[in-house]
Amino acid sequence: MLQHQNRKFKLGMHSYTLHLSGFGESWGFQEYGEHHAFEQVKTFRDLVDIAVEVGLDVLHITLVDIQNDTSDEHLAACRKYAEDHEIELELNVSFNAPSDPRVNCTIEDSLEIHYSEINPDADAVELRVGEDFSYTDAIKACLRQNPMWLVLSEARSVEVTSLIEQWSTGVNGITTIHLDDLRKLPDRIENMMNDVNDASRLENRIYRYVNVGVLIRREKEADGGIRRYIDQMCFYVREEHKNRVYMLVEDGEIISRKIPADIAKRLKLAGIDEFFWCDLDPFIKRGM
User: Fold this and answer.
1) What is the distance between the alpha carbons of residues 49 and 54, in angstroms, rounded to a whole number?
2) Per-residue pLDDT reduced to its tens digit, 31-86
3) Separation between Cα atoms, residue 264 and residue 258, nearest integer Å
4) How far is CA 140 from the centre of its chain?
5) 104 in Cβ contact with 174 (< 8 Å)
6) Which residues have C-beta within 8 Å of that of residue 60, sequence separation ≥ 6?
């Protein structure tokens, strides 16, 4: 026989649900390291009034809902207003950030990157995909957390469409793809996207949102060891209505140090003024 079968459940809601409607200022997006947060136009009292109107019993709120004011006087006033309206409160004390960023999300089918172990102080989430949780599902779940970086262990199929979409929002990302020449990457991604209805538009998106490609090769040394080196490196850009590939490294040799204007702008916005401060020489084939 069930115990407490007559117990009444209380209906509650997390205030996140309303943060895109003017409650709370922590929902927004980031682009090139700049925060673009939605302005808070509703107050805590407005939030409680809506809870009463829709018949809620409990509100789970965050600090932004009370304007990050944790003074005794303000907390007491919020509590009294909620009690007067018969609304119970749960307060989630989260960090204060303009657009609530996560430093990193990693998505893998087997957890091999070990990002959190390598960076124990980082604010990171690692997701493992499976039969009931696809790469596409994982990418969409990560985007809801407004990450600064999204690392996909390997792009293999149609999930690359969601990956391009998240890059288009200003989220930084890294993934790996099996390829023998970086100039073939746009075609490879198009084939994976599985949408031939508007091939030219898809190609333009790839050149606009995929910034850099690095081809890693490995070779066996005389002592039986394995050495990996940068065989190719390039930038993908769309400029003057044309799609272009700028090769910097070819066959393990530096062939150019020209940085496209759009890439140079992105680097400067990220605080990188000396583009070749970290030289490629130790990582390419020559001199290794």
Assistant:
1) 9
2) 445 555 666 777 889 889 988 988 889 888 877 788 778 888 988 999 999 999 99
3) 10
4) 10
5) no
6) 12, 13, 14, 15, 90, 92
Assigned token pair, 73: 């006087």
**Residue 193 bridge partners (DSSP):** none
Burial 76-90 (b: 16+ CB within 10 A, else e): eebeebbeeeebebe
pLDDT of residue 202: 80
62 HSE (CA, 13 A, CB side): 17
Mark 222-246 as b/e (b = at least 16 C-beta within 10 Å): eeeeeeebbbbbbbbbbeeeeeeeb
Which residues, in sequence order, are bridge partners of residue 175?
152
243-284 pLDDT per residue, tens: 999 999 999 888 998 999 999 988 888 788 887 766 556 666
- What torsion do the CA atoms of 223, 228, 231, 236 make, to the nearest 10 degrees? 180
List the structure tokens of 83. 């009690």
- Between these two residues, 132 and 230, which has the higher pLDDT value? 230
Reading the block at residue 178, the tokens are 């099996």
Which amino acid is located at 38 in the chain?
A: F
Length reported for the chain: 288
* Per-residue pLDDT tens over the stretch 139-176: 777 777 777 788 887 887 777 887 888 788 778 888 88
Contact call for residues 142 and 107 (beta carbons, < 8 A): yes
